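Please describe our next protein:
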Amino acid sequence: MQILNYESFKEMSDENRIRLIATQPIRGRILDKNGFVLADSKVKYSLIIKPQYVSEEDWQQHKFKIANLFEEDVNLLQKKYSFGLDQKKLSITLIDNLKTEQIIKFKEHENTLFGFEIATKLIRNYPYKTLAAHAIGYTQPITDSEYQFLSKKGYRINDLIGRTGIEYVYENLIRGEWGGEMIEVNSLGAFQKSLGIKPSKQGSDVQLTIDLNLQLVAEEVLQDKKAGAIIAMDPRDGAIRAMASKPTFDLNFFSQEFKPEKEYNKIFNSPEKPLFNRALNAYDPGSVWKIVTALAGLESGKFPPNTLLETKSCITYGSQCFREHNDLGFGTIGYEDALRVSSNTFFYQIGYGVGVDEIYNISTKLGFNSLSGIEIAEQENKGLVATSQWAKDGRGWGEAGKTPWVAEDIASMSIGQFVVQVTPIQIAKAYAAIANGGYLVTPHLSKKEGEFLSKNKQIKIDINSNNIQLIKRGLRKVVESGTGVSMNYGSSNLPPVSGKTGTAEDGEGGPDHAWFVCFTPSDNSELLVVAFAQNTPGGGSVHALPMARKILNAWNQKN
């Protein structure tokens, strides 16, 4: 048996006599675009003893010195030491969470305490706590079931792994590699000699496109809102300058070894769902959707750029009279003025005239009904843009053939209600295509070139550039003299701003949502902002526009 099975017996023997004292790697930092630290590693200090280097006689002397020096119970130290010996541990923790003064005391007596060390344990630290929590993400220890396959990738029991956000997406880059000391022991587990030390390898930093200054303002403008989201993005390349969602949560909660039940329930069991990223969740868009209906009318050829339509107090579709938001109408107007005053009845006529599938076709060209391409796709909802086939198939909840498309649907769809559900990030992507003259960009959070940014080239959309320019002129008029004119109040020397207000009924029955989308400068735009206040009745110009204005003012002052 010894001859025939030599190799396997030798491997078993080596595994039996070699131990590894692991050294945890330092996880890479997460930085904003200017190098400010958004996530790093914080060191926790412990006093340990390596019993293989300390005789029993020396231990008996040292334990009293340690107890006196650190003001610890000597019996407790003995208990921890004896337990460690029974478990044949090669590193025994005697005192956890050392204070600064305790570390200094140890350093002063280090030469007389051979075999004792200050051990460090790294925990994830988020200096701004709740800031950009959904984008940055958090880490947690791996589970027993995960360890079964992650151990092959170098993970250890209770090792940390990125769970959400950038921490999850760039896990392989950020985590680093474990190191340690190889120890040889005899058949009784007693220390024989050190076989060598391999230093741990620090993880790489990840730099984001987020601007800390704008992110702080984005978090601030959501403070008085029940729920909502802010996205600030460069429309030229899709770089996210700020992404905030409320309610939010303290990322440092996940770094605590002991998690109080009250805090746990507030994060995981709260009806407010603070872990939910509102910037990537789908809602009724209301009037910010009207650019899609407008482009459908223009691109179909049925309603050319010089189209003039009579607006009314309401127009009947099916069994319902769909009202104008001022209950009067705005006379006979064209596209630009329809956007300026956000006429409902103008866009009902356009939508009904081109049909559902033409609106759907234009929406897909603008990036709707699909994921945006942002790295943190695990948090993203692709939303819904209805089609006639979707209705025939049962609308996702009914029986095929029994839920057909009806006239009321097209009226709702034309102004972004009920059969349309979109995310703030999709709105940002679509409006960026208007701001930059007709190119789809991929929203992204990371400045690192590679897998995720390889798709970030501008893609020319198949929409007539003259039609896009017409929409741009209409959006400029919104802020000059339309529903977004209050953007000019209290703003300090802003360059020209274009935008669109939106008030949307909540398809789930809650209070109205408030929207405002804008970009500046109107020509050669550098910043686009989507402001969304969930279930905040009163109108986009009242609640969402002031949020966007504060973002633009902060950006303008810095630039």
About this structure: The CA atoms of residues 113 and 153 lie 37 Å apart.
